[in-house]
Amino acid sequence: MTPGINMEFIRCEDKSFAAGVERAAQIGYQYIEPMLHNGRELLSEAGYFHSVSMDDDPIFIRDICEANNVRCSGVSAHCPLMRPEISVPYLEKAIRFAKALGAPVVNTDEGIRPSWLDDVEIWHVMKYTLKKVLPLAERHGIAIGIEPHQSITKTTSGLLRVATLVDSPMLRINYDTGNAYLGGEDPYEGLQAVSRRVVHIHAKDISVQHAEAEKGKVTGTPVGCACGDGVIDWRRVVSILRSAGFEGVLSVECGTPAQAERSLQHLNEVLADV
Fold first, then answer.
1. What does the DSSP 8-state code read for residue 114?
2. Is-contact 84 132, C-beta < 8 A?
3. Residue 95 pLDDT grade (very low, low, confident, very high; cuts 50, 70, 90)
4. pLDDT at site 103
């Protein structure tokens, strides 16, 4: 088990993916988690945003990582599972891109629920999407990590139901501690319940002020505070993961390079102690 960093940490500085990777390596991270998008996007094209286009050559992206001696723990590829016309081609492209990068997991969630789908139809549509993309994931050996992040997966029961819609060894869970907490769940009970299916962790801490303002009112948040500065007990999280045999990456989701530095220091101390 080792810390990694989601590239959202560099967004506050309006820097490119390459600049973010260099900064992550300078801080001391050995793993990063890129965010993928389709097509062309003005800010990332101009070097002001960290997202990576899947129209670019993934080997070029891999070269940037190798030049900085970092590897990809996974890729952030969130899409609406209930919109297969969007999510099927997007996830299939993300799987191929992840394979070329050497990233073992594509992290996603169910997305915002369309208003025209009723309570029964949503499950059929998500199952169709997953059944369509999982054979490709299995061929490439890339896991699809479902994250607690929207109206269904904000609960542990909903997360487990989505993550078991299709019987596949590649359908797993990317557990986000901060999203679970803000969604109203006990993150430790939730993590314990899904621990055997976890393939990747979003190590997101939530400040006391953030928790007081939004707990139980939202289904997640883009980034949290530095790990160790908020409400999440990382020793307890690591203990649960170690008991389940998890040996993956704790990908920190924070908002600034300074928070990334404090997160790495805190998680390394916890990993050494537990």
1. P
2. yes
3. very high
4. 98
Q: What is the 3-state secondary structure (H, E, C) of 194-244?
A: HHHHEEEEEECECCHHHHHHHCCCCCCCCCEECCCCCCCCHHHHHHHHHHC
CATH of the domain at 241: 3.20.20.150
**C-alpha to C-alpha distance for 179 and 222, rounded to whole angstroms:** 9
Predicted TM-score of the model (pTM): 0.96
- Cβ burial of 57 (10 Å; 0-12, 13-18, 19+) is exposed
How many Cα atoms are found within 13 Å in the side-chain-facing hemisphere of 95? 23
Non-local (6+) Cβ contacts of 66 within 8 A are none
Terminus-to-terminus CA distance in the chain, angstroms? 11
Assigned token pair, 150:
């929207």
pLDDT at 271: 98
The residue range of the domain holding 31 is: 2-273
Cα separation, 210 vs 231, in Å, equals 10
Structure confidence at residue 212 as a pLDDT band (50, 70, 90): very high
Q: How far apart are CA 99 and CA 74, in angstroms?
A: 10
Quote the number of domains for the chain.
1
